[in-house]
Write a structure and sequence with these properties.
The structure holds 2 protein chains of 2 kinds.
Chain A lengths: L5 H22 L1 H4 L1 H8 L1 H15 L6 H14 L4 H26 L1 H6 L1 H128 L5 H36 L7 E3 L1 H19 L6 E5 L7 E3 L1 H23 L9 E8 L4 E8 L6 H4 L19 H13 L2 E7 L3 E9 L2
Helix pairs in contact in A: 1-4, 1-5, 1-8, 5-6, 6-8, 8-9, 8-10, 9-11, 10-11, 11-13
Chain B lengths: L1 E5 L4 H9 L1 H5 L4 E5 L2 H9 L6 E6 L7 H11 L6 E6 L4 H9 L4 E4 L4 H11 L1
Parallel strand pairs in B: 1-2, 1-3, 3-4, 4-5
Helix pairs in contact in B: 3-4
Classes of the chains: A alpha+beta, B alpha/beta.
Chain lengths: ~450, ~120
């Protein structure tokens, strides 16, 4: 058994430690591969034991092969890391040279001794190669590290910005969600308010109607009362005549005819009053959205009269001519009577309001007139026009009149919803159109078009 | 004397003819009817105004009863015909306006035909 050459062990161990120190730095094992870092850091211990064993066994070696193979092991584990490639270029040829060297040393020691100079030279070149490429690899690694550090710094900045953006997005999303919720609440409130306003508008227009309705009901009721009284008188006359011995048959027949006529008149005016009350109830009732076959002429006439009497009752000095030019051959049409009546009432009320305002100016010879006309046009549309010779309106107002809450009336006299609701009722509820033509100072015409087909 | 009833309600004619059938048959009352102020003015053109009594509704489309009164009285404020105004709106304003324009009487609907008969008889 040979003695241990400690100087040999120390050189091998320290060389291993130095080389591994350099390799760990180049390969950045400390941050990249903790396990490899530990292995390389303790490689000197392995080398120390191994060199001692080799010494004890009496073998001779340069230990460079072991160091090279350890480096190649580290390079293999760091595959893909750019500096590892440079290290592999440095150590693969050297390892090859050292392996050849050891191969001949162990197997053909004589040949090795005979050619020792060549082997020494080869090892010398291998060492120079390793040294040169290692230094180069180290520098390259430093440059790469700077680039990677820079890239990392940029990545971190981007990451930080990304996180900041994500935070901002999250914050903004939460804010938007909150806004969405509050908007939804506001929308619900608006819908409720809108329904209340629609109801208020209906009640307001009903209020405007009240005086007109009272007048319209009063008239037929007067006729009912008067014709009833006359009928009672006629019956008395009839009785008186029958009590005579020589009663006049022709006179009796005449009285009976009058009584019969009166009964018809009573029925007619009773139905007229009932129809007005029915209309009023229909107007105040929420629309059920059901379309009914309706006589537009009768509806237009009814609402024209109601509107006129309503205004007349409110302002006793007011008087206007109202005309109807109704097409006697107008077909009945499927509409929602309450809704369509509301439209007519709104527009007719506005027309009377316009002529009333103009009449107040005291223009000589001015005859306030509102005309409602019906017809069927060549395209087979039913047309209802409401025309007034009031003050008309400028273009700037004409473009706004169908907007909700727009009104030219003084505060408290109009909700500004009448025409807006009318527009919706005609266009959305009846697939028709509502248009306005107006000349300032001359008057306004509203044209309702309803498709018959 | 002719009694001209001016009212846009068509059944007024039937009502008057039946209500005053006895007076008509007896030749006490002689009615004429107009459906509007304009029609009434047209009718009056060919009439002796002293032999006409007008019974006019105020509230009519087109020419109102007040306007009719104004036009008749504008020619002769105090002379005939006798004009009685009728309205469904028994308001002070209409009454004062009619009387100021020269109406001889002011009646409100529903008409009391007994009272009207007396008024007509006393005016004729």
């Amino acid at each position: 058994m040979s003695k241990i050459d400690f100087s040999d062990v120390v050189i091998a161990t320290s060389t291993m430690a130095v080389v591994m120190g350099v390799v760990t730095k180049i390969l950045e094992t400390k941050t990249r591969d903790h396990r490899l870092h530990t292995i390389l850091n303790f490689a000197w211990l392995g080398m120390m034991l191994l060199s001692m064993l080799i010494n004890l066994a009496g073998y001779e070696t340069s230990y460079s092969t072991i160091i090279c193979l350890t480096v190649l092991f580290a390079v293999q584990r760091s595959k893909g890391f750019p500096p590892a490639r440079m290290l592999s270029i440095a150590f693969v040829p050297a390892a090859f040279v050292y392996l050849i060297n050891d191969f001949f040393l162990f197997l053909t020691p004589n040949f090795f001794k005979d050619n020792k100079d060549y082997f020494d030279t080869a090892r010398g070149f291998a060492f120079m190669w390793v040294l040169g490429f290692t230094i180069y690899a180290q520098r390259q690694a430093k440059r790469d590290k700077v680039v990677r550090d820079k890239a990392e710094a940029e990545r971190r900045i981007i990451e930080a910005k990304k996180q900041e953006l994500e935070y901002q997005v999250a914050e903004r999303t939460a804010e938007l969600r909150k806004q969405k919720e509050s908007l939804e609440e506001a929308l619900e409130e608006l819908k409720t308010t809108q329904n209340q306003l629609i109801q208020a508008e209906k009640m307001a227009s009903l209020g405007e109607l009240t005086a007109g309705i009272a007048h319209e009901i009063q008239n037929p009721l007067n006729f009912v009362n008067n014709f009833s009284e006359v009928s009672v008188e006629l019956c008395q006359e009839l009785q008186e005549e029958l009590d005579k011995d020589d009663f006049d048959k022709t006179y009796i027949a005449e009285i009976l005819s009058d009584i019969s006529q009166n009964q018809q008149k009573i029925t007619h005016h009773g139905q007229r009053a009932a129809s007005i009350v029915r209309g009023m109830l229909q107007h105040s009732r929420a629309s059920n959205g059901q379309k009914e076959l309706t006589d537009i002429n009768a509806l237009a006439d009814e609402y024209l009269r109601l509107s006129y009497h309503g205004l007349r009752a409110k302002d006793k000095t007011f008087n206007a001519d109202f005309k109807t030019i109704l097409d006697p051959n107008l077909p009945k049409i499927e509409i929602i009577p309450q809704d369509f009546g509301r439209v007519l009432l709104n527009i007719i009320n506005n027309a009377f309001y316009a002529v009333q305002q103009k009449a107040k100016q005291g223009i000589e010879g001015y005859k306030p007139t509102v005309t409602v006309a019906t017809k069927v046009n060549p395209q087979e549309d039913l047309i209802v026009t409401i025309t007034d010779n009031g003050g008309g309106m400028p273009e700037s107002i004409k473009t706004k009149i169908f907007q909700p809450f727009f009104t030219t009336k003084p505060t408290g006299q109009g909700t500004g919803l009448g025409l807006s609701l009318s527009y919706d009722i005609i266009t959305k509820g009846h697939a028709g159109t509502l248009e306005v033509e107006s000349t300032e100072g001359e008057g306004t015409e509203f044209i309702i078009t309803l498709p018959l087909k | 004397m002719k009694i001209l009833v001016v009212d846009d309600e068509e059944d007024v004619r039937v009502l008057f003819e039946q209500r005053f059938r006895r007076e008509i048959r007896a030749g006490e009352f002689d009615f004429a009817f107009s459906g509007s102020g304009e029609e009434a003015l047209e009718y009056l053109k060919g009439q002796d105004l002293e032999a006409v009594l007008i019974l006019s509704d105020i509230n009519m489309p087109g020419m109102s009863g007040i306007e009719l009164l104004r036009q008749i009285r504008s020619k002769s404020p105090t002379s005939p015909p006798t004009i009685m105004m009728i309205t469904a709106y028994g308001d002070v304003q209409s009454h004062d306006q009619a009387m100021a324009l020269g109406a001889n009487d002011f009646l409100t609907k529903p008409l009391d035909f007994t009272e009207l008969k007396q008024k007509l008889k006393s005016s004729l």
